[in-house]
Model the fold of this input.
Amino acid sequence: MLRNLTKYTAWSVYFLILALYAFSLWALFDHRSDETFWSFSESYSILQASFLQAGLSATFAIFLGILTARSFFYLNFKGKSLLYKIISFAWALPSLVVIFAMIGVWGNSGWLIKGLKALGFEPDFQFYGLQGILIAHLFFNIPLVAKYCLEALNRIPSNQHQLAAQLNLTGFSYFRIVELPVLKGILPYAYVNIFLICFTSFPIVLMLGGGPKYSTLEVAIYQAVTFEFDFAKAVLLIMLQVLIGLVLQLLMDFVTRHSFNSLKNYSPVVDEIWKPTPKGLRRFGLQAVLFGVGFTTLLPMFNVIWSGLSVSKFTERLLQPTLWQATSYSLVLALISAITVIVIAYLISLEARQLVYKQQKVKQSILAGVSTYPLIMPVFMLAVGLFLLLIDIELTTWQLLVLIGVCNGLTLLPYIYRLIYSAMWESFISYDKLARNLGLTGVRRWWIVEWHYLIKPLRNAFALAMSSSLGSFAIIAFFGSPDFSTLPYLLYQQLGSYRTEDAAVTALILMLCTFLPFLVIEQKENR
Done:
């Protein structure tokens, strides 16, 4: 009975998601006109700029991420764990907060430019354009690459380090012989993952691109709908992004399988790893890398805090009703998004693992494939389609909250599904035979066997979903208004109208709200 319930529920969720995307696509085609200003040369220049900035962002992030991971791996110092957690937190920051922070540090009136001028230099540096996009993307992606590489380096057994030390391997030879074999398993996956993230980047390119020269497809879609009202152009651009997204996703699946197959040769090291203590110039180099990455990561965060606290009439700005209304809407949206994506991911994982166990690979691929739809189909296809579908319907505030919350949750499905499914599959293969022998089924089996195994992954997934939803901007960009605004939408309006002091307070509140779920998780794990 319960088995059939989970089966039908999972497939019902699958078809509901499919219907949501189908209705969005139908609305786009229904509203398009025959005339459009779209041209192939315009799309070609957009694709060229998108591939350029995504390729450069991924390449620099891989290089600097490897250096950062090696510094954390080989150096031991007080506060190392705390510094790593703070740098890792940068990846979870909302894009608009990072944009505000980067402008305050790297902009023409930023701290670095002011510092150089105080020293007598006259820097000729324009932050807006390709360089601004790259700097913001590196802020996000260096911690992500460092996390991947550090996990890989921790798989190298101690005897390999000891043998390399006996052979007096140093420098690039040490890296090539000891470290590169394990890193080769994860680097292609990391590169394609970051390339895909940067290729579909929206707020960063919109705010820092400096014009249409460095536009991405998502920015072009947004401009076609909101400024040009050219729905035919939006449809063509969306179809183009779906095609490219499909190709990139197939590439992503290929390198993912290759990465995990390569890492099977390196089991996680349980005991403490012996590794050489860096000395002299090598130690100085690792320290310099760590200082550089730490400085360029912590300074923007500190800038958000300082800018928010040092504004004139801080209390008055902090107590503005619009700020706290936006905060309440953001928290409710984040809660709806987190619950939505975790419930969907859990229900699909529950059925998908049964299909894998019964070796029904085709059905499992179809069902689990729904988690990749947000990567293949642009978020703007969902946002614009629903916007056009509901344009003549007056929605209440709660209806808008549920609609945007569910859509935000769907955009997180690729990441949350992987977290939950891997934990559920490990729980299944570890305890299924024991549970069957003891006659445990249904809710009783879940409570006795699986709950204790899944609580930590579910908690981490909830924190990640909450933080990501708090900073989500793509969906609210179409449904937001002066009466219905979230913190990212309010911050976007304030930055666009040059209300920098109001924006500073909003950015501070948004950063603190994003940090709160991780703080709660950290306290739970330390108990």
Notes: The CA atoms of residues 140 and 411 lie 18 Å apart. The radius of gyration is 24 Å. The first helix runs from residue 2 to 31. The chain has a mean pLDDT of 82.
